[in-house]
Amino acid sequence: MSPMYAVQFDFPGGRETLSYREAPEPTLGAGEVMIGFEASSINPADLKISGGRIAPRAGTSPFTLGWDVAGIVDQVAPGVEGFRVGDRVIGMSTMASTGRGTWSQLVSLPATSLALAPTRIDPTVLAQLPLVGLTALKAVDELGPLPDQTVLVVGAAGAVGSCVVQLLARLGVEVHALVRTRERADALASEGQVTAVYTGEAPTSTFDAIIDAAGIDAAYALRPGGSYVTCVPGTLPESVGAGGSIGATAIVPESGANLATLLGFLADGSLSLGEPSVFRLSDIDAALTAFENRRARRTVLIA
Length: 303
Description:
By secondary structure, the chain is an alpha/beta fold. The protein is 24% helix and 30% strand. Helix 4 (130-143) packs across helix 5 (159-170).
């Protein structure tokens, strides 16, 4: 039997503590599906975990990193329905809660966390969807009904922010965007899904709702009584709640059903994902360097 490899760390300390190394195969638990790794994405949460800013609330060292996975079903636990060996699936592991990462040649996850994926969509595209898409969908759902509202998306050019913009646009909501640079503002404006794009600051006390996808306090732009949702835990502004405004943090659960919804949007063209930089899982150091130096491109790991 060939050895299995994974990207792991024994203790937090940043990228220098990570290594691609031989690891025990995961066990297939009740209600679970074993996936042969095809692709995953690097997310900011991965660096927060490996650097010690977020500690996994379950599991023991050594930890395998990674939240997203696209791959081929290798095994199915008895009694699990809807998945067969050879199916392509995508899923998300809430690594910070479970201690179970996805940067591994084999990944075992609950069947309820997975969705069947179209074979015509490349794994490097599919791998970008789970954490980012589920976060964006949760943030939009937190706002509730949005008829006739104007919504500001903070960090609209980022991975989560871009998905939020597209999800709002497909609902017919008037979307405004706040980004860091003029270059990103021009690119976003050219896509035609936003009414206006701002750099630096947005208009004060203007918007019915705000979704913050970057962890930047933009509460000054919220109208009294408006709604404010942050996608970055720990960054909900203290001022939210004054004047009758409502605040929430988008806490993202594993959900195969929600992933299936997002895949439908991807298939019908109402949601699109960018062309990523692609690296082998074994070349994790170069991949992390590219991620830290990225220019509006996601970094994807492949087998």
